[in-house]
Amino acid sequence: MSETGTILSGSAALKIAVPGSCNPTDLNMYCPKGTAKTVAQYFLENPDIRRVPLPVKKVGAERTPFSKFDVNRGVRKIYLFHHTITGKVITLCESIAESPLVPLLFFHASFVMNYVSGHDVVCLYSALTENYSGLSNLHPEFTLIHKPGQNRKWISRGFDVHADCSYLHSIHATVLSGVEKGACQWASRRSDDRWIARVSFQVCPVGSPVSPIISWQLGRRVTEKNGIMPGVVQVAGDKWYMNTFRPGGVWVEYYAPVDRRSGKVVSAWWKRSFP
Questions:
Q1: Residue 1 included in any domain
Q2: Distance in angstroms between the alpha carbons of the first and the last residue of the chain
Q3: What are phi and psi of 76, to 5 degrees?
Q4: Which of 238, 271, 13 shows the shortest CA–CA distance to 117?
Q5: pLDDT band of 207, cuts 50, 70, 90
Q6: One-character DSSP codes across 145-175
Q7: Which domain of life is it from (predicted)?
Q8: What is the pTM of this model?
Q9: Nearest Cα to 1, choosing from 115, 123, 140, 163?
Q10: Contact between 216 and 105 (Cβ < 8 Å)
């Protein structure tokens, strides 16, 4: 994990960050773009781990100044592995970017935005998560990109899922409002900011974050009727769109699972691979 920058996330990371909060049934790993084959080979060196064949199709999509990393929820390719003794599944997601954190920031709620790296445990929304509370990461197509019943599942486990942070405060986080950024959907966050809880278990620089530094905003409701603004994720200080002359942005490739018989992309399989 230290060598490749791979991290553990999903419910397994949540259980480590908040002991007793859940009982994970599988492992969700995330690695930087370009490192997936190295990580996959490491798993396959264990004779009890087998790779599960997953037919895929290469898909091209535009990354624009407005979508940033919002291409396939930040995932470039998914690899599935099966542990023959325990029957457990390991899902390895290759990030669409050099940071493995990008897919995490498209998760459905803030309380699963935690990770374990090669040297520390990190909780991005610690003030809420430790109290079994979280913010929904709203999106205009929320039901299409996430597993059915996600919020109901976590509510049954004792978590509060707030669709609108206005439930927690009447004004949103700004420099002068005094509202904590770690409890606001409107807040502009960074992966090295002070609202993150980080516990190191190896000798490393204090508070050293996964590189590169990522900034993001959660999806939120901007008008009462139907105005939902999807979340934005980008490398902190990234000005790539100012240096390109392509008005439509740049093309990004990712791999989607397909049905062996029809050759068509199966979206139901795809979204069920995400926490």
A1: no
A2: 20
A3: -90, -45
A4: 13
A5: low
A6: HS-TTHHHHHHHTT-EEES-GGGT-SS---T
A7: Eukaryota
A8: 0.87
A9: 115
A10: yes
Does 157 reside within a domain? yes
Domain range for 17 is 7-271
Q: What are phi and psi of 194, to 5 degrees?
A: -85, 0
| 97 touches 124 (CB < 8 A) | no
Q: What is the mean pLDDT of the chain?
A: 84
**Residue at 205 is within a domain:** yes
Sequence-separated (6 or more) residues with CB below 8 Å from residue 233: 68, 69, 70, 74, 102, 105, 106, 214, 215, 216
Q: How far apart are CA 59 and CA 41, in angstroms?
A: 24
Judged against a pLDDT cut of 90, whether residue 105 lies above it is answered with yes
CA-based nearest residue to 59, from 223, 245, 267, 219: 267
Chain segment 223-275, per-residue pLDDT in tens: 766 689 888 888 776 654 444 444 555 667 778 878 878 878 776 665 555 55
How far apart CA 47 and CA 121 sit, in angstroms, is: 28
- For the chain, how many structural domains are there in total? 1
Give pLDDT, residue 116: 96
Instruction: Report the DSSP pairing between strands 27-31 and 89-95.
Output: parallel
Q: Which residues contact 66 (CB under 8 A, 6 or more apart)?
A: none
Instruction: Give the separation between CA 26 and CA 114, rounded to whole angstroms.
Output: 16
| Residue 118 and residue 2 in contact, taking contact as beta carbons nearer than 8 Å | yes
Q: Give every strand in the sheet of 27-31, ordered side by side.
A: 49-52, 75-83, 89-95, 27-31, 7-9, 114-116, 120-123, 197-200
∠ CA 126-131-135 to the nearest 5 degrees? 65
Q: Is residue 2 part of a domain?
A: no
From 130, 132, 117, select the one nearest 202 (Cα to Cα).
117
Residue 262, amino acid: S
Residue type, 272: R
